[in-house]
Amino acid sequence: MATGYRLTASTGIHKGDREYQQDQVALIKHPRTNGCILGIVADGMGGRSGGRKASDQVMMTAKQLFERYDPNTDDAGSMLQQIVDEAHIVIKLTAISAEEEPHSTMAAFVINPGGDCHWAHTGDSRIYHFFGNRFVKRTMDHSYVQTLVDKGELTEEQAQSHPKSNILMGCLGTDTEPPVGEHLIPKLRPGDVIMACSDGVWHYFTTDELGSILASLSAREASEFLIEKARSRARGGGDNLSLVIVKLENLDS
Question: Is pLDDT above 80 for 77?
Answer without folding.
Answer: yes
